[in-house]
Automatic annotation (TrEMBL):
<dbReference type="InterPro" id="IPR013822">
    <property type="entry name" value="Signal_recog_particl_SRP54_hlx"/>
</dbReference>
<keyword id="KW-0342">GTP-binding</keyword>
<dbReference type="InterPro" id="IPR036891">
    <property type="entry name" value="Signal_recog_part_SRP54_M_sf"/>
</dbReference>
<feature type="domain" description="SRP54-type proteins GTP-binding">
    <location>
        <begin position="270"/>
        <end position="283"/>
    </location>
</feature>
<comment type="similarity">
    <text>Belongs to the GTP-binding SRP family. SRP54 subfamily.</text>
</comment>
<keyword id="KW-0687">Ribonucleoprotein</keyword>
<keyword id="KW-0378">Hydrolase</keyword>
<dbReference type="InterPro" id="IPR000897">
    <property type="entry name" value="SRP54_GTPase_dom"/>
</dbReference>
<comment type="function">
    <text>Involved in targeting and insertion of nascent membrane proteins into the cytoplasmic membrane. Binds to the hydrophobic signal sequence of the ribosome-nascent chain (RNC) as it emerges from the ribosomes. The SRP-RNC complex is then targeted to the cytoplasmic membrane where it interacts with the SRP receptor FtsY. Interaction with FtsY leads to the transfer of the RNC complex to the Sec translocase for insertion into the membrane, the hydrolysis of GTP by both Ffh and FtsY, and the dissociation of the SRP-FtsY complex into the individual components.</text>
</comment>
<dbReference type="Pfam" id="PF02881">
    <property type="entry name" value="SRP54_N"/>
</dbReference>
<keyword id="KW-0547">Nucleotide-binding</keyword>
<feature type="binding site">
    <location>
        <begin position="108"/>
        <end position="115"/>
    </location>
    <ligand>
        <name>GTP</name>
    </ligand>
</feature>
<keyword id="KW-0963">Cytoplasm</keyword>
<feature type="binding site">
    <location>
        <begin position="249"/>
        <end position="252"/>
    </location>
    <ligand>
        <name>GTP</name>
    </ligand>
</feature>
<dbReference type="Pfam" id="PF00448">
    <property type="entry name" value="SRP54"/>
</dbReference>
<dbReference type="InterPro" id="IPR027417">
    <property type="entry name" value="P-loop_NTPase"/>
</dbReference>
<dbReference type="GO" id="GO:0005886">
    <property type="term" value="C:plasma membrane"/>
</dbReference>
Amino acid sequence: MFESLSERLGGVFERLTKQGALSEDDVRTALREVRVALLEADVSLPVARDFVARVQEKATGQSVTRSVTPGQQVVKIVNDELTATLRGEGDPGALKIDSPPAPILMVGLQGGGKTTTTAKIAKRLAERERKRVLMASLDTNRPAAMEQLAILGQQIGVDTLPIVPGETPVQIARRAKAQAALAGYDVYMLDTAGRLSIDEELMAQVEAVRDVASPRETLLVVDGLTGQDAVTTAENFDERIGITGVVLTRMDGDGRGGAALSMRAVTGKPIRFVGTGEKLDALETFEPERIAGRILGMGDIVALVEKAQETIEAEQAERMMKRFQKGQFNMNDLRMQIEQMQKMGGMESVMGMMPGMAKMSKQVAEAGLDDRLLKRQLALISSMTKQERANPGILQASRKKRIARGAGLEVSQLNQLLKMHRQMSDMMKKMGRMKGGMLRQAMRG
Ligand code: GDP
Protein backbone atom coordinates (compact mmCIF):
# COMPACT_ATOMS: atom_id res chain seq x y z
CA MET A 1 0.00 0.00 0.00
CA PHE A 2 1.75 3.12 1.18
CA GLU A 3 5.50 3.22 1.25
CA SER A 4 6.28 4.20 4.78
CA LEU A 5 7.73 7.57 5.43
CA SER A 6 10.85 6.18 7.04
CA GLU A 7 11.52 4.11 3.91
CA ARG A 8 11.11 7.12 1.71
CA LEU A 9 13.39 9.20 3.86
CA GLY A 10 15.93 6.43 4.14
CA GLY A 11 16.33 6.48 0.37
CA VAL A 12 16.70 10.22 0.27
CA PHE A 13 19.38 10.30 2.89
CA GLU A 14 21.44 7.38 1.70
CA ARG A 15 22.89 9.65 -0.89
CA LEU A 16 23.80 12.31 1.58
CA THR A 17 27.01 12.17 3.49
CA LYS A 18 26.63 12.78 7.16
CA GLN A 19 27.52 16.24 8.20
CA GLY A 20 27.48 17.96 11.52
CA ALA A 21 24.10 19.56 11.09
CA LEU A 22 20.99 19.18 8.96
CA SER A 23 21.46 21.55 6.05
CA GLU A 24 18.61 23.51 4.56
CA ASP A 25 18.77 21.42 1.40
CA ASP A 26 18.77 18.10 3.26
CA VAL A 27 15.75 19.17 5.19
CA ARG A 28 13.96 20.47 2.14
CA THR A 29 14.51 17.21 0.28
CA ALA A 30 13.26 15.20 3.21
CA LEU A 31 10.26 17.42 3.73
CA ARG A 32 9.12 16.94 0.15
CA GLU A 33 8.61 13.31 1.11
CA VAL A 34 6.92 14.30 4.33
CA ARG A 35 4.52 16.47 2.40
CA VAL A 36 3.58 13.62 0.10
CA ALA A 37 3.06 11.37 3.12
CA LEU A 38 0.80 13.97 4.72
CA LEU A 39 -1.26 14.37 1.57
CA GLU A 40 -1.59 10.60 1.27
CA ALA A 41 -2.78 10.58 4.86
CA ASP A 42 -5.55 12.96 3.80
CA VAL A 43 -4.18 16.15 5.28
CA SER A 44 -5.40 19.13 3.29
CA LEU A 45 -2.89 20.93 1.10
CA PRO A 46 -2.75 24.28 2.93
CA VAL A 47 -2.40 22.51 6.27
CA ALA A 48 0.36 20.25 4.93
CA ARG A 49 2.18 23.20 3.42
CA ASP A 50 1.99 25.19 6.61
CA PHE A 51 3.11 22.26 8.69
CA VAL A 52 6.10 21.52 6.47
CA ALA A 53 7.19 25.16 6.64
CA ARG A 54 7.17 25.00 10.43
CA VAL A 55 9.22 21.82 10.48
CA GLN A 56 11.65 23.25 7.93
CA GLU A 57 12.37 26.11 10.27
CA LYS A 58 12.77 23.87 13.30
CA ALA A 59 14.93 21.25 11.63
CA THR A 60 17.39 23.37 9.66
CA GLY A 61 20.65 23.67 11.51
CA GLN A 62 19.83 21.03 14.10
CA SER A 63 22.88 18.98 14.80
CA VAL A 64 22.74 15.39 13.66
CA THR A 65 23.24 12.90 16.44
CA ARG A 66 25.64 10.04 16.02
CA SER A 67 23.37 7.07 16.37
CA VAL A 68 20.43 8.05 14.21
CA THR A 69 20.44 8.81 10.51
CA PRO A 70 19.48 12.28 9.33
CA GLY A 71 16.32 10.73 7.87
CA GLN A 72 15.35 9.31 11.23
CA GLN A 73 16.09 12.60 12.85
CA VAL A 74 13.81 14.46 10.47
CA VAL A 75 11.11 11.87 11.14
CA LYS A 76 11.48 12.54 14.82
CA ILE A 77 11.16 16.27 14.39
CA VAL A 78 8.12 15.73 12.18
CA ASN A 79 6.61 13.37 14.74
CA ASP A 80 7.14 15.82 17.59
CA GLU A 81 5.60 18.65 15.63
CA LEU A 82 2.64 16.50 14.60
CA THR A 83 1.98 15.49 18.17
CA ALA A 84 2.24 19.07 19.37
CA THR A 85 -0.15 20.28 16.66
CA LEU A 86 -2.69 17.55 17.40
CA ARG A 87 -2.65 18.12 21.15
CA GLY A 88 -5.26 20.49 22.48
CA GLU A 89 -5.26 21.99 25.92
CA GLY A 90 -6.11 19.85 28.93
CA ASP A 91 -7.48 16.35 29.06
CA PRO A 92 -9.57 15.60 25.95
CA GLY A 93 -11.66 12.96 27.72
CA ALA A 94 -12.72 15.21 30.59
CA LEU A 95 -16.16 16.55 29.70
CA LYS A 96 -17.54 19.60 31.47
CA ILE A 97 -20.40 18.03 33.32
CA ASP A 98 -20.35 19.69 36.69
CA SER A 99 -23.53 21.45 37.91
CA PRO A 100 -26.18 18.82 37.16
CA PRO A 101 -28.10 18.32 35.05
CA ALA A 102 -25.35 19.13 32.54
CA PRO A 103 -26.52 19.21 28.92
CA ILE A 104 -24.38 17.70 26.16
CA LEU A 105 -25.44 18.52 22.62
CA MET A 106 -24.48 15.99 19.97
CA VAL A 107 -24.35 17.32 16.41
CA GLY A 108 -23.23 16.07 13.02
CA LEU A 109 -24.31 14.77 9.64
CA GLN A 110 -26.40 11.67 9.15
CA GLY A 111 -24.41 8.45 9.08
CA GLY A 112 -21.40 9.96 10.82
CA GLY A 113 -22.02 7.85 13.89
CA LYS A 114 -23.79 10.40 16.06
CA THR A 115 -26.34 8.13 17.68
CA THR A 116 -23.84 5.36 18.30
CA THR A 117 -21.38 7.84 19.80
CA THR A 118 -24.06 9.33 22.03
CA ALA A 119 -24.61 5.88 23.51
CA LYS A 120 -20.87 5.22 23.75
CA ILE A 121 -20.28 8.42 25.70
CA ALA A 122 -23.33 7.78 27.91
CA LYS A 123 -21.99 4.32 28.72
CA ARG A 124 -18.61 5.70 29.56
CA LEU A 125 -20.02 8.39 31.85
CA ALA A 126 -22.28 5.89 33.56
CA GLU A 127 -19.62 3.23 34.06
CA ARG A 128 -16.45 5.18 34.65
CA GLU A 129 -17.78 8.27 36.35
CA ARG A 130 -20.90 6.82 37.94
CA LYS A 131 -23.09 9.49 36.38
CA ARG A 132 -26.82 9.21 35.95
CA VAL A 133 -27.39 9.92 32.30
CA LEU A 134 -30.55 10.61 30.30
CA MET A 135 -30.45 10.43 26.51
CA ALA A 136 -32.99 11.98 24.16
CA SER A 137 -33.31 11.69 20.40
CA LEU A 138 -34.44 14.82 18.57
CA ASP A 139 -34.56 13.22 15.14
CA THR A 140 -38.25 13.77 14.56
CA ASN A 141 -37.94 13.12 10.82
CA ARG A 142 -36.72 9.60 11.35
CA PRO A 143 -38.71 7.57 13.87
CA ALA A 144 -36.24 4.73 13.27
CA ALA A 145 -33.43 6.88 14.64
CA MET A 146 -35.43 7.55 17.79
CA GLU A 147 -36.07 3.83 18.17
CA GLN A 148 -32.39 3.14 17.61
CA LEU A 149 -31.38 5.34 20.56
CA ALA A 150 -33.98 3.66 22.79
CA ILE A 151 -32.61 0.24 21.89
CA LEU A 152 -29.01 1.32 22.51
CA GLY A 153 -30.12 2.75 25.85
CA GLN A 154 -31.56 -0.60 26.86
CA GLN A 155 -28.37 -2.36 25.82
CA ILE A 156 -26.16 -0.18 27.98
CA GLY A 157 -28.62 0.34 30.82
CA VAL A 158 -28.99 4.08 30.31
CA ASP A 159 -32.38 5.81 30.37
CA THR A 160 -33.85 7.44 27.29
CA LEU A 161 -36.56 10.06 27.23
CA PRO A 162 -39.86 8.39 26.27
CA ILE A 163 -40.86 9.13 22.68
CA VAL A 164 -43.92 11.38 22.29
CA PRO A 165 -45.07 11.44 18.65
CA GLY A 166 -45.67 14.85 17.09
CA GLU A 167 -43.27 16.86 19.23
CA THR A 168 -40.75 19.26 17.66
CA PRO A 169 -37.02 18.97 18.46
CA VAL A 170 -37.23 22.09 20.63
CA GLN A 171 -40.14 20.62 22.57
CA ILE A 172 -38.22 17.41 23.12
CA ALA A 173 -35.18 19.37 24.31
CA ARG A 174 -37.35 21.27 26.82
CA ARG A 175 -38.90 18.06 28.07
CA ALA A 176 -35.47 16.42 28.43
CA LYS A 177 -34.22 19.40 30.41
CA ALA A 178 -37.23 19.38 32.72
CA GLN A 179 -37.11 15.62 33.18
CA ALA A 180 -33.37 15.66 33.89
CA ALA A 181 -33.83 18.32 36.57
CA LEU A 182 -36.89 16.68 38.09
CA ALA A 183 -35.50 13.16 38.26
CA GLY A 184 -32.01 14.16 39.38
CA TYR A 185 -29.93 13.16 36.37
CA ASP A 186 -26.31 14.35 36.30
CA VAL A 187 -26.18 14.65 32.55
CA TYR A 188 -28.64 14.78 29.69
CA MET A 189 -27.55 14.18 26.13
CA LEU A 190 -29.41 15.56 23.14
CA ASP A 191 -28.92 13.54 19.96
CA THR A 192 -29.91 16.03 17.27
CA ALA A 193 -31.15 15.13 13.81
CA GLY A 194 -28.62 14.63 11.05
CA ARG A 195 -28.88 15.38 7.37
CA LEU A 196 -26.96 14.04 4.45
CA SER A 197 -25.44 17.45 3.94
CA ILE A 198 -25.47 20.74 5.73
CA ASP A 199 -28.59 22.76 5.03
CA GLU A 200 -30.19 25.84 6.45
CA GLU A 201 -33.13 24.02 7.99
CA LEU A 202 -30.87 21.65 9.91
CA MET A 203 -28.68 24.47 11.20
CA ALA A 204 -31.66 26.56 12.28
CA GLN A 205 -33.07 23.59 14.13
CA VAL A 206 -29.83 22.77 15.94
CA GLU A 207 -29.44 26.44 16.81
CA ALA A 208 -32.91 26.57 18.36
CA VAL A 209 -32.18 23.45 20.40
CA ARG A 210 -28.87 24.91 21.52
CA ASP A 211 -30.61 28.06 22.74
CA VAL A 212 -33.06 26.02 24.79
CA ALA A 213 -30.46 23.74 26.35
CA SER A 214 -27.39 26.03 26.72
CA PRO A 215 -25.15 22.96 26.47
CA ARG A 216 -21.97 22.62 28.55
CA GLU A 217 -20.45 20.61 25.72
CA THR A 218 -21.36 20.59 22.05
CA LEU A 219 -19.67 17.64 20.43
CA LEU A 220 -19.48 17.27 16.69
CA VAL A 221 -19.40 13.68 15.51
CA VAL A 222 -17.74 13.20 12.12
CA ASP A 223 -16.66 10.24 10.07
CA GLY A 224 -12.87 10.19 10.19
CA LEU A 225 -12.74 8.47 6.82
CA THR A 226 -14.23 11.44 5.02
CA GLY A 227 -11.05 13.48 5.36
CA GLN A 228 -11.41 16.96 4.00
CA ASP A 229 -15.22 16.80 4.04
CA ALA A 230 -15.10 16.21 7.77
CA VAL A 231 -13.07 19.38 8.16
CA THR A 232 -15.52 21.42 6.10
CA THR A 233 -18.39 20.03 8.17
CA ALA A 234 -16.57 21.00 11.36
CA GLU A 235 -15.97 24.52 10.11
CA ASN A 236 -19.62 24.93 9.21
CA PHE A 237 -20.94 23.61 12.49
CA ASP A 238 -18.48 25.60 14.52
CA GLU A 239 -19.30 28.83 12.75
CA ARG A 240 -23.01 28.43 13.16
CA ILE A 241 -23.47 26.47 16.39
CA GLY A 242 -20.14 26.74 18.18
CA ILE A 243 -18.62 23.38 19.09
CA THR A 244 -16.48 22.48 22.10
CA GLY A 245 -14.93 19.38 20.63
CA VAL A 246 -14.88 16.77 17.91
CA VAL A 247 -15.35 13.00 17.93
CA LEU A 248 -13.78 11.23 14.96
CA THR A 249 -15.49 7.95 14.20
CA ARG A 250 -14.41 4.95 12.10
CA MET A 251 -10.81 5.32 13.14
CA ASP A 252 -10.74 1.53 13.15
CA GLY A 253 -10.87 1.66 9.36
CA ASP A 254 -7.99 2.28 7.03
CA GLY A 255 -8.22 6.04 7.22
CA ARG A 256 -4.81 7.43 7.88
CA GLY A 257 -5.69 10.04 10.44
CA GLY A 258 -4.93 13.08 8.33
CA ALA A 259 -8.39 14.47 8.97
CA ALA A 260 -7.41 14.83 12.61
CA LEU A 261 -4.50 17.09 11.76
CA SER A 262 -6.49 19.25 9.35
CA MET A 263 -9.29 19.41 11.86
CA ARG A 264 -7.04 20.75 14.60
CA ALA A 265 -5.20 23.11 12.32
CA VAL A 266 -8.29 24.54 10.62
CA THR A 267 -10.86 24.71 13.42
CA GLY A 268 -8.56 24.87 16.44
CA LYS A 269 -11.08 22.68 18.27
CA PRO A 270 -9.83 19.78 20.34
CA ILE A 271 -10.47 16.22 19.26
CA ARG A 272 -11.94 14.57 22.34
CA PHE A 273 -12.60 10.97 21.39
CA VAL A 274 -12.12 8.56 18.53
CA GLY A 275 -14.56 5.82 17.63
CA THR A 276 -12.85 2.54 16.91
CA GLY A 277 -15.67 0.17 16.07
CA GLU A 278 -19.38 -0.53 16.10
CA LYS A 279 -19.45 -1.97 19.61
CA LEU A 280 -20.55 0.37 22.35
CA ASP A 281 -17.27 0.32 24.20
CA ALA A 282 -15.26 1.09 21.06
CA LEU A 283 -14.54 4.66 22.09
CA GLU A 284 -11.12 5.94 23.10
CA THR A 285 -9.87 9.20 24.49
CA PHE A 286 -7.94 10.97 21.77
CA GLU A 287 -4.20 10.34 21.92
CA PRO A 288 -2.12 12.61 19.71
CA GLU A 289 0.90 10.27 19.72
CA ARG A 290 -1.10 7.46 18.22
CA ILE A 291 -2.55 9.54 15.44
CA ALA A 292 0.86 11.03 14.70
CA GLY A 293 2.28 7.52 14.31
CA ARG A 294 -0.58 6.65 12.06
CA ILE A 295 -0.14 9.66 9.83
CA LEU A 296 3.54 8.88 9.48
CA GLY A 297 2.42 5.39 8.56
CA MET A 298 4.88 3.24 10.40
CA GLY A 299 4.55 0.81 13.21
CA ASP A 300 8.03 1.29 14.55
CA ILE A 301 7.80 5.04 14.82
CA VAL A 302 7.33 5.00 18.56
CA ALA A 303 10.42 2.91 19.26
CA LEU A 304 12.40 4.88 16.74
CA VAL A 305 11.39 8.18 18.19
CA GLU A 306 12.16 7.05 21.71
CA LYS A 307 15.59 5.89 20.69
CA ALA A 308 16.31 9.10 18.85
CA GLN A 309 15.06 11.06 21.83
CA GLU A 310 17.38 9.29 24.24
CA THR A 311 20.36 9.66 21.97
CA ILE A 312 19.66 13.28 21.28
CA GLU A 313 19.25 14.06 24.94
CA ALA A 314 22.44 12.26 25.93
CA GLU A 315 24.45 14.00 23.24
CA GLN A 316 22.95 17.34 24.08
CA ALA A 317 23.82 16.89 27.74
CA GLU A 318 27.36 15.95 26.86
CA ARG A 319 27.82 18.97 24.60
CA MET A 320 26.23 21.28 27.09
CA MET A 321 28.48 20.03 29.86
CA LYS A 322 31.60 20.71 27.82
CA ARG A 323 30.49 24.24 27.15
CA PHE A 324 29.50 24.90 30.75
CA GLN A 325 32.94 23.85 31.90
CA LYS A 326 34.38 26.54 29.69
CA GLY A 327 32.03 29.00 31.30
CA GLN A 328 29.73 29.25 28.28
CA PHE A 329 26.11 29.23 29.31
CA ASN A 330 23.80 31.23 27.10
CA MET A 331 20.08 31.82 26.76
CA ASN A 332 19.63 28.77 24.54
CA ASP A 333 20.99 26.63 27.35
CA LEU A 334 18.76 28.36 29.84
CA ARG A 335 15.80 27.76 27.59
CA MET A 336 16.64 24.09 27.38
CA GLN A 337 16.87 23.91 31.16
CA ILE A 338 13.51 25.60 31.58
CA GLU A 339 11.89 23.29 29.06
CA GLN A 340 13.38 20.32 30.84
CA MET A 341 11.92 21.60 34.07
CA GLN A 342 8.49 21.99 32.47
CA LYS A 343 8.69 18.43 31.20
CA MET A 344 9.39 17.19 34.69
CA GLY A 345 6.25 18.82 36.03
CA GLY A 346 7.34 22.40 36.71
CA MET A 347 9.50 24.12 39.25
CA GLU A 348 7.42 23.24 42.25
CA SER A 349 7.49 19.53 41.56
CA VAL A 350 11.19 19.47 40.64
CA MET A 351 12.09 21.23 43.86
CA GLY A 352 9.70 19.07 45.81
CA MET A 353 11.70 16.04 44.70
CA MET A 354 14.99 17.40 46.00
CA PRO A 355 15.86 16.63 49.59
CA GLY A 356 15.54 19.65 51.82
CA MET A 357 13.79 21.66 49.12
CA ALA A 358 10.22 20.71 49.93
CA LYS A 359 9.70 23.80 52.06
CA MET A 360 11.17 26.04 49.42
CA SER A 361 8.98 24.45 46.79
CA LYS A 362 5.97 25.61 48.77
CA GLN A 363 7.37 29.10 48.96
CA VAL A 364 7.98 29.03 45.25
CA ALA A 365 4.36 28.15 44.67
CA GLU A 366 3.13 30.80 47.07
CA ALA A 367 5.31 33.50 45.56
CA GLY A 368 3.78 32.77 42.16
CA LEU A 369 7.11 31.45 40.91
CA ASP A 370 5.39 28.55 39.30
CA ASP A 371 4.79 27.43 35.77
CA ARG A 372 3.55 30.83 34.77
CA LEU A 373 7.00 32.14 35.53
CA LEU A 374 8.58 29.45 33.39
CA LYS A 375 6.24 30.35 30.54
CA ARG A 376 7.08 34.04 30.93
CA GLN A 377 10.77 33.27 30.85
CA LEU A 378 10.40 31.23 27.70
CA ALA A 379 8.40 34.04 26.09
CA LEU A 380 11.18 36.49 26.88
CA ILE A 381 13.87 34.22 25.49
CA SER A 382 11.81 33.64 22.35
CA SER A 383 11.58 37.32 21.60
CA MET A 384 15.36 37.70 21.62
CA THR A 385 17.30 37.49 18.38
CA LYS A 386 19.69 34.66 17.69
CA GLN A 387 22.69 36.80 18.58
CA GLU A 388 21.09 38.01 21.78
CA ARG A 389 20.37 34.49 22.88
CA ALA A 390 23.92 33.41 22.20
CA ASN A 391 25.32 36.39 24.03
CA PRO A 392 22.84 38.13 26.34
CA GLY A 393 25.64 40.47 27.48
CA ILE A 394 25.07 42.63 24.39
CA LEU A 395 21.59 43.73 25.45
CA GLN A 396 21.11 47.52 25.54
CA ALA A 397 18.25 49.35 27.20
CA SER A 398 16.38 49.89 23.93
CA ARG A 399 16.66 46.21 22.98
CA LYS A 400 15.47 45.23 26.42
CA LYS A 401 12.36 47.33 25.99
CA ARG A 402 11.67 45.75 22.63
CA ILE A 403 12.13 42.23 23.95
CA ALA A 404 9.88 42.83 26.93
CA ARG A 405 7.23 44.36 24.68
CA GLY A 406 7.56 41.42 22.27
CA ALA A 407 6.78 39.06 25.12
CA GLY A 408 4.02 41.28 26.49
CA LEU A 409 5.97 41.79 29.73
CA GLU A 410 7.83 44.45 31.72
CA VAL A 411 11.53 45.27 31.45
CA SER A 412 11.85 44.47 35.15
CA GLN A 413 10.77 40.93 34.40
CA LEU A 414 13.43 40.67 31.71
CA ASN A 415 16.02 41.99 34.16
CA GLN A 416 15.01 39.25 36.58
CA LEU A 417 15.63 36.65 33.90
CA LEU A 418 19.01 38.15 33.02
CA LYS A 419 19.99 38.16 36.67
CA MET A 420 19.05 34.53 37.03
CA HIS A 421 21.05 33.71 33.92
CA ARG A 422 24.13 35.50 35.33
CA GLN A 423 23.83 33.68 38.62
CA MET A 424 23.49 30.31 36.97
CA SER A 425 26.33 31.06 34.63
CA ASP A 426 28.60 32.00 37.57
CA MET A 427 27.64 28.84 39.36
CA MET A 428 28.40 26.73 36.28
CA LYS A 429 31.82 28.33 35.98
CA LYS A 430 32.63 27.59 39.60
CA MET A 431 31.48 24.02 39.25
CA GLY A 432 33.42 23.69 36.00
CA ARG A 433 36.62 24.72 37.73
CA MET A 434 36.30 21.82 40.08
CA LYS A 435 37.56 19.62 37.27
CA GLY A 436 34.06 19.13 35.99
CA GLY A 437 33.38 16.50 38.58
CA MET A 438 30.61 18.30 40.34
CA LEU A 439 28.97 19.52 37.20
CA ARG A 440 29.06 16.08 35.71
CA GLN A 441 27.40 14.76 38.81
CA ALA A 442 24.84 17.54 38.90
CA MET A 443 23.85 16.91 35.31
CA ARG A 444 23.64 13.16 35.62
CA GLY A 445 22.00 13.27 39.02
P1 GDP B 1 -25.82 8.73 12.79
O1 GDP B 1 -26.70 8.74 11.59
O2 GDP B 1 -24.79 9.79 12.72
O3 GDP B 1 -26.55 8.72 14.07
O4 GDP B 1 -24.97 7.37 12.68
P2 GDP B 1 -25.13 6.00 13.47
O5 GDP B 1 -24.77 6.20 14.89
O6 GDP B 1 -26.44 5.42 13.18
O7 GDP B 1 -23.97 5.14 12.80
C1 GDP B 1 -23.97 4.77 11.44
C2 GDP B 1 -23.22 3.44 11.30
O8 GDP B 1 -21.84 3.65 11.61
C3 GDP B 1 -23.70 2.37 12.24
O9 GDP B 1 -23.74 1.16 11.54
C4 GDP B 1 -22.65 2.33 13.32
O10 GDP B 1 -22.53 1.05 13.90
C5 GDP B 1 -21.42 2.69 12.56
N1 GDP B 1 -20.36 3.31 13.40
C6 GDP B 1 -20.48 4.35 14.26
N2 GDP B 1 -19.29 4.64 14.83
C7 GDP B 1 -18.40 3.75 14.32
C8 GDP B 1 -16.98 3.53 14.51
O11 GDP B 1 -16.28 4.22 15.26
N3 GDP B 1 -16.41 2.52 13.78
C9 GDP B 1 -17.15 1.74 12.93
N4 GDP B 1 -16.52 0.79 12.26
N5 GDP B 1 -18.45 1.94 12.72
C10 GDP B 1 -19.09 2.91 13.41
